[in-house]
Design a protein that fits this description.
The chain is 64% helix and 3% strand. The protein is mainly α.
Length: 142
Amino acid sequence: MHRPVAPVQLHPSGVGAVTGRQNGTARRDLEDRLLAGGRDLDLFGEELDRLGSSRGRRINADRESLEKGLAQLVLTLVELIRQLMERQALRRIEGGSLSADEVERLGETFMLLEQKMGELREHFELEKEDLNIDLGPLGKLL
């Protein structure tokens, strides 16, 4: 009922169909024509080279860069949370829902957190700008 069909290459120039059952010369001519499209093959080769080089850049498994990258990510998240908490504290202060002692404690806590963040950035050789991760079309995180 169903059986395999030989592969067919169609040529827009009207040459006709060439099947896999051609003699050796016709088959070599076909292969030459398929491989003669150098422009397309060059583009394909360039794309492979580009992908190969980008893959090499993304994978960097040395211990120091992994530690630094992880520290950058964690410190970025801590900085984001700190800024959100600071904004919330300012809203509560402006709203009058905190006592003078609570305001004092919050101020001290935020100052200590900023100091500790500075120490950690220094330890991992990060600048404050390094914590502002680029989110592509969304812009900078902080």
